[in-house]
Amino acid sequence: MASLFDKRAPRPDIAHVGMGDKGATGLMPAQDRFINLILQYPLWMLTINAALVAVIAIGASRLQVETGIDIFFADDDPNLLAQRSLDETYGREDNILFIVEAVNGDIFTPENLISLVALTLEAWQMPNSRRVDSVTNYLYPTVDGDDIIIAPLLDKAAQLDTAKISGIRDLALSEDALVGRLLSSDAAVTGVNVSLNLNLREKAGEVDESVSFARQLAAQIENSNSNLRVYLAGWAVTEQTLAEVTTEDSSLLIPVLFVVVLVLLAFLLRSPFASLCTVIVILLSIAVGMGFAGWAGVGLNSVNVSAPTIIMTLAVADCVHIFSAFLRQLREGMPKRRALEYGLRDTLYPIALTSVTTALGFLSMNFSDSPPFAQLGNVAAVGVLGALWASVTILPGLILLLPFRTKEGVSTGLPMDGLARFVLSHQAWLRWGFTASIVIIVSFIPRIDLNDDPSGYFSEAIPLYHAINMIDSRLSGSQSIHYSIEAIDGESISDPDYLEQVAKFVNWLREQPEVTNVESFTDTLKRLNQVMHDNSQEWFRLPDSNEMASQYVLLYEISVPYGQDVTHQINASKSALKISATVTNQQSSGLIAFEERTRLWLEENTPDIASRGTGQSLSFANIGLRNIHSMLYGSLVAIILISICLIIAFRSIKFGIVSLIPNLFPAFVTLGLWSIFVGEVNIAASVVFSITLGIIVDDTTHFLVRYRQARLIHSLSAEDAIRYTFNSVGGALVTTSVALAAGFFVLVASDFSVNSTSGLLVALTIFMAILLDLLWLPTLLIKADRWLVQRKPDQDQLEAPV
């Protein structure tokens, strides 16, 4: 039996490769006929199927780039609906925030204030701007005789002397509405916030227009005043940055991956024509996936833009398995057509099986609550099946057309026989060592923190990253929660009882350690009441009567300059106020906990005005946690379906159960290691298991097919079956794993952290999968061999397509 796995032994005749007595190969008659059809009409198969691929690929011309934050939410997402309701009432959160840092440590110098006034005035000229808020145009009520004057805090800095500037500085630092929102407590950093009025149908173009203007203005201010540094943030900047990163990823990562794949194939397969054929299959597979996306109306966004990269790496795996078997026989002197026949018969079934299981893994991403991830799963699943289609119908014709030489060196040079000896010699140590290590590492998974605020979605190479850090460390906080507080019994916001409860809530918010600023119209009413009573500090309180409060509201509305009305704080019917709390950057669970604590306080202390918080930051925090739960359910469904596929394929419940062990643990081990060394992940982690589940089944399936073949067909002992498996598919498994891991590792270069994190996690998971398949799985198979293979089946009853 040694000749079957001895690399120096003669090649077994093709009639005995993985077969029983049902035909030459033991394959099902339909599969036999399919292979014969491919070999009999290779050029016709190539031409017809290439034409079909071209028809599907036309759909790629319909692809359009999707931008914006809303793409991460389904139309019926409860947090998105709450956000839209708030936007319809008070205006959208779309904004551009200029963060201005004074290098000398003080914004309140004549030169700096002149620049700040100029920035504020120029910001009004920004396309799509509807409101500009700044320290300089902050409305501050004062009394002049019998008249109330509501004017900007500062509008002509050049006319102010040092004493007046010092007074304005002290006044600004005493205003709760400014400090922690538009002014840092040390007066070294300030913000100019531009609210935008965007047409949702033309939002991408209008965002690009506004952000371009803002970037030019920021550069202009810095050039005119070397003492200022200007950063840009806000939701519009976030959306524009996402669009730019998406475009850069699609134009950069795929070419880089092509180079990586070509280099790997040239080194591992040592055949330029094999590399060329693989590249063609890759292109066809991507064409199928992206063509499907276009026909299905899927837009290209910052998440599913990685689909071509994923499809590319999986197409490589199919080609490598076929070429490994084909080139091995060609090197040993077999005629090309017969070597191709051998390669197809040797690999068709496991490739088809792994393609189906991989597609199932990707399709489980449809359980995601975030549409881009579901779209990525669908496009990748179609691309995987497209890779299978191209590999078995088009690749054979290419192989027969191209002049493959019979003496091409194709050995990977990987010491598979030596590795097999190592595993067999240390099987007990490896089995228990890996088992103990897995248990320990997996136990760290609960320590992982989920942080899904989009403020952390970009790398340090992106200017927005530094702007957000400046906001969090020097100005205020990058997260906000908004509350729409309805008047009691549908009455007016002028009701004194209602206003007292709102003020009580505002005071409580300001006492919370997470909160840096609270914006509420009740502060404006207090200031107006104070002004109306000779500016006496004891009258800095809410008006006592409904009539007085109504007069103050009316007085303020008719006195404010154009563009600085209170519609962002009071609804049109005067029946609700919006309270906005700016908080320090919280992890998703922390932000959700804060909102729940706030809601509980409202229900217990001011039940008449109890309300739920909303906002973009809170929406992302919730969808991240919900996605974890939904994807866990989806992964469970995928595991069940893949298990059924493997049980049917192996015609053995026992082998199906054993196959689950190395398929489940790689992702768990990776997340455990991530918890130990990093400790924090974003929404990418929720889909890693679904992405990798189908992929890592590839290695396990090929390994188990060969092992089962050696035990049941060739009647080898368990140890000899392991040697046979290592020598027959070990090199191909390592090659495909390296190609897959390298492909996903390219995503690490993305400046979008969801892609870079998922790429790194998937690459690490694939590495862990091949490590466990080669070093742990063999020891488990040997240990469980008596349970798995209780007796040798009769050959005439053996129809399993191995």
- Gap between N and C termini: 19 Å
- Give the overall form: elongated
Give the strand tally. 11
| Class by alpha and beta content | alpha+beta
What is the averaged pLDDT score?
Answer: 84
Number of helices: 26
Summarize the main sheet: 4 strands, antiparallel
Helix content bin: 55-70%
Strand order of the largest sheet: 2-5-1-6
Radius of gyration: 33 Å
- What percentage of the residues does DSSP assign to strands (E)? 5-15%
Notes on the protein architecture:
This protein is α+β, with helices and mostly antiparallel strands. 60% of the residues lie in helices and 8% in strands. A four-stranded antiparallel beta sheet has the order 2-5-1-6, with helices on both faces. The chain has a three-stranded antiparallel beta sheet with strand order 8-10-9. A two-stranded antiparallel sheet has the order 3-4. Helix 1 (29-40) packs across helix 10 and helix 7 crosses helix 23 (718-746). The protein starts with 28 loop residues before the first helix and ends in a 14-residue tail after the last helix.
Spell out the blueprint of helices and strands.
Layout: H1 29-40, H2 42-57, H3 78-90, E1 95-102, H4 110-123, E2 129-133, E3 139-144, E4 147-152, H5 162-174, E5 189-196, H6 203-224, E6 228-233, H7 235-268, H8 272-295, H9 307-331, H10 336-363, H11 371-393, H12 395-401, H13 416-425, H14 427-442, E7 449-450, H15 463-475, E8 479-486, H16 496-511, E9 515-519, H17 521-531, H18 546-559, E10 576-583, H19 588-605, H20 616-650, H21 653-677, E11 680-681, H22 685-713, H23 718-746, H24 753-775, H25 777-783, H26 785-788
Parallel strand pairs: 7-11
Antiparallel strand pairs: 1-5, 1-6, 2-5, 3-4, 8-10, 9-10
